[in-house]
Amino acid sequence: MKVFKFGGTSVGCKEGLANIKRIIDSEKGAVVVVSALSTITDSLIKCCSLAAKKDTKGYLELLDEIAARHHRIISECIQESKRAELLSKIDSLLDELGNILKGICLVGEASQKSSDATVSYGERISSLIVTSLLENATCVDSLDIIKTTPYYSRHIVDFPKTNSLINATFSKLCGKTVVMGGFISTDKESGNITNLGRGGSDYTASIIAAALSAEELYIYTDVDGFMTADPRVITNAYRIKSLSFVEAMELCNFGAKVIYPPTIYPAYNNNIPIIIKNTYNPECEGTYIGHNRCSEKHQQCTIKGISSINDTALLTIRGLGMVGVIGVNYRIFKSLAKAGVSVFLVSQASSENSTSIGIRTSDVDAAVNALTTEFKQEITTGEIDNVIIDKDLATIAVVGESIKDAPGIAGKLFGTLARNGIKVLTTAMGAAQTNISFVVSIDNLKKAISVIHDSFFLSEYQELNLFLCGVGVVGGSLIEQIASQKQTLKENNSLKINVVGISNSRYSLFDKEGLDLDGYKERLMNGCPTKPKDIVAKIKELNLYNSVFVDCTASGDVATIYEDLLKNNISVVTANKIAASSKYEHYTNLKETARHKGVKFLFETNVGAGLPIINTIGNLRNSGDKILGLKAVLSGTLNYIFNVLSEDIPFSKAVKAAQDAGYAEPDPRIDLSGTDVVRKLTILARESGYIVEQDDVERNLFVPEKYFEGPVNEFWEKVPELDQHFDEIRKRLEKENKKLRFIATLSDGKCSVGLQEVDSMSPFFNLEGSNNIILITTSRYHEYPLQIKGYGAGASVTAAGVFADIMSIANIR
């Protein structure tokens, strides 16, 4: 025999009732427990409230709507031959309900007894409708067999009495389909109508299943089963195929509203599997809850699911007078129980001087009054402080029976939260180790759940949220590469890249769900005006997890916001050399901030575009090697100029060709002055372990100082004056089989840059086009320095290097 429960969304519409009929008519001797039609219980509560306020017109209009709703369902779904008898029964119940509401209206007050009686009519009526819907079904009144007893401010099931009545009743109905209303019950002594609490229809079904030793308990809802997280928060949450009873209980207790939490116990105690299914998608397997079955997809996942309570308040009772005093916690929980306050989280300091409890926000006043009264004397004498109240919080629980077998899981969890800037206010983990619960600000709820879901492989893919600043040649190329590679990364590397922000020097676009990269340039021109500080404010406001700021500008203003971003746990990837070559103190502060916050500050493309120079130096040092010296051609622009210099192309035209090819800066004097190379060498020296400022670099310039004065248009007018000088040098070097190279050198901790003549034996001689080369001399690579060579300039290779840094944040190589 199987027990089925159908919720109000199933019972309350034509499609849902048709599916119920199709499911149950194929079963023999099933027990069907139903809720009231969707929203009817709320309407009954409102009716009661209106009547208590003596709003006769209001409650009568609502009562007419309730009646019309049920009549409409009957006319749409019940065979015509059954309607008259059914309507007679239902109208009789509605008359009873009307009389109760009339009495409430007369006295202007709704007692608990009359309130409970009022809300019972939803299930009493719906059970009659479903009985008429099904073939050869019998209706059993739950009020006759589900018995309760008072417990503080609520009613709990009297299981001995209830089980006895269930077995006596069903022994006479063997083999028949039986329909019952859920939720409703009666007091075992007075016979007054009571109920099992909102959501109690699930509980009724479980009580029946346990009493009758059912094979399985099916809970039909409007979702496919338990999800790895709330799909309203995590859009890529997916169905959990199976859970243990303990895991299901933990998820239910912490806000997963799939089933009513008390439902688990009767089934667990009698080893009856619970299957959660969707009335509107009955072909879906749903979620299996039991002792044995294990989902293949989840058997290797430490965490099965994440649940949350988003209206948490934290009360803290503390004081030195609590230390070593026996019975303090007993008094805390006794006073809260008397006040009808449910506590779902407890965290106590080992010193016994403070206890924090998590409760619903709606219970704060009652809880504070109860505790203040209980500890009035201790508070007066100062042994215990006034109760500390923290609101606007959320409690998150990560659940899985495998947590107890996974060393370091708590460390990974809290480390992941810390790296994303999420502060944990308190935490709790029982000795059973199936649940790690913690409290965060409500503002961080979505971010916290997202990053846990992503980090613990509950998501099908990892997500990175990128904010791109700069859409020039490098930034534009990066966006093209991301757009072309997004789907491949998602399919092959389980990585989803969301470009959630794009900015140029004037405007910005933001979309927390991810921007459409098609036509972004046109949309950007109509974006919101922003300055760098505004970008930081918007990124903080969005508060997205796994956030990465990508700088493809050469702006000093943009470089100034890195520290603020890193302090807010946002990784920075930059092609902009200004920050890493700024004052040494600022450079080290950025790196230390990133390290302290557990985020990344990556700038591989600051030197050599996409060449793996900085990473290689870092790997050498981290493995214990020592960098003794560097010798490099680091300016693709200058290398290009001296490579194209010829009899037909004088120096001035070579400089213009470098600019036209996209290698030189808009003002080529930045390249010709060696400033760019000085920055690069400063960065390499620092990454090699040396304390170097830009002013420490010796500069041997090859263009006289006067050419760097005045506006750039004057430079273009004067630069042909240098053509003859460089042509004479070119002719001489051709005879000597030598070439000009602008070389950066680190030797004995000293740095220098300058134009040098190299012969055919030099590794720099055959350096083509805009290529870069670096020779790294180390303790290990001493006689034969390590050589890295390749494209050192160009938008596509620089963008590719930035992209590679982004991939490294996602641990994808």
How would you summarize what this structure contains?
The protein has 813 residues and is an alpha/beta fold.
Write a structural description.
The structure is a single chain. This protein is an alpha/beta fold. It contains 31 helices and 31 strands. It has an eight-stranded mixed β-sheet with strand order 3-6-2-1-9-11-12-10, with helices on both faces. A seven-stranded mixed β-sheet has the order 22-21-20-19-23-24-25, sandwiched between helices. Strands 14-15-13-16-18-17 form a six-stranded antiparallel β-sheet. α3 (40-52) packs antiparallel against α6 (112-119). 44% of the residues are buried.
Structural class: alpha/beta
Determine the oligomeric state from the structure: single chain
Strand order of the largest sheet: 3-6-2-1-9-11-12-10
Q: How many DSSP E strands?
A: 31
Largest sheet: 8 strands, mixed
Strand content: 15-25%
The rounded Rg comes to 37 Å
How many angstroms separate the termini?
Answer: 55 Å
Query: What's the average pLDDT?
Result: 93
**What level of helicity do the residues show?**
40-55%
Q: Uncertain spans, ≥5 residues at pLDDT below 50?
A: none
Shape label: elongated
Helix run count: 31
